[in-house]
Design a protein that fits this description.
Elements lengths: L9 E9 L2 E11 L10 E6 L12 E9 L7 H22 L4
Antiparallel strand pairs: 1-2, 1-4, 2-3
Length: 101
């Protein structure tokens, strides 16, 4: 993805690095969190098999593949199940790329 391009809303497979550490694999959402009635655009990333706190740190994000469009789910539980499917799919893609051994 061109670094100067504004990305569309959606869910993406990503590789993330920080301070010469990584890469870490993850799932990133660009959107408004419609299941929770959100209105403002936000970016959220879930790093797979990673438990450190990264709030306030600068991250380098490489977009690998778009998984799906952002959409509203009928319940938080339904969203949770979709996120698990997104993570499973991203793990498979990242494993094939050699990010996960």
């Amino acid at each position: 993805v061109d670094p100067l391009q504004i990305l569309p809303k959606g869910v993406f497979v990503v590789k993330v690095s920080r301070d010469k550490k990584g890469p870490y694999g993850g799932v990133l959402n660009i959107g408004t969190r419609p299941t929770f009635g959100g209105k403002e655009l936000s970016v959220e990333v879930h790093l797979i098999n990673f438990s450190e706190n990264l709030y306030g740190e600068k991250l380098l994000v490489e977009f690998i593949k778009k998984i799906r469009e952002e959409r509203s789910f009928e319940s938080p539980q339904a969203l949770y199940h979709q996120i698990k499917r997104d993570i499973d799919y991203a793990s498979k893609v990242l494993h094939e790329m050699g990010v996960f051994k």
